[in-house]
Amino acid sequence: LVLVLNPRDAVVLEAVKPPAQRIVALPPFLDPAGWPLPPAAPQPAGGPVRFLAVAMMRPGDKLASHALMADALSRLTPLDWRLDIVGDGPARPQVEALFAPFGGCVRFHGLVEDRGALAALYRDSDLLLWPAVNEAFGMVFLEAALQGLPAVAGDFGGVAGVVIHGETGL
Prior knowledge:
- This is Glycos_transf_1.
- The chain is α/β, with parallel strands linked by helices.
- The chain is 29% helix and 18% strand.
- The strands form 2 sheets. Strands 5-4-3-6-7 form a 5-stranded parallel sheet.
């Protein structure tokens, strides 16, 4: 028995598995009981679009995702937007440098361990942004969906198994 987290892994393993081996999908999940559902903060009419990114800050694919996100945001002028970034790690100085040109449009929250505070950030946002470069899955997309927040995500790895284009995000 081989357990896979996403449909893309199943396709790859199907081609190389022994004939008697069975592949079973076991997608990651969240226990909703562990997440409070705070009320969303009212958004003033005509206010900025509120983006949220929640991710580790480390070299490699995570840093590449932050760079891709910064590049995409640079193309949104003259749209009025704000980005809250949650996360920390050894690449934080590089991530801060990527977003420095945006000035006060970007706020860094560091690591937010309190689920109530994190849930409030999800619920107070309009859209989750995360390119998910080479991610096998991305629990952040489940967290966002639990809070009713749609996502714009990269179509990498198993992300397409949870961010359904046109339904739970783009």
